[in-house]
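ok so I'm stuck.
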Amino acid sequence: MNKKGENKNSSINEAVWQETPKIKEPIYKIDERPQSWWESVLYGWQHTLVDISPFVLPLAVAGAIGMSALEKAQFINFCLFS
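replied:
not stuck anymore, here's the structure
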């Protein structure tokens, strides 16, 4: 702040975009559930696929190009890090 009490970094309070982004409301709040059992299974399966995909793809590529077990482990670590 300068002597007048003004903030030198006035750009901090300025908007980054010309339009205000629209924020989507979640389908289910924290304490809500899907209505059907099958919908719960579908969301659970989707979560599982997203959770394991960073491991499966590097493992498939490493196996296809003939890496050793140690190289596969390093390759997965590199993929997760990047």
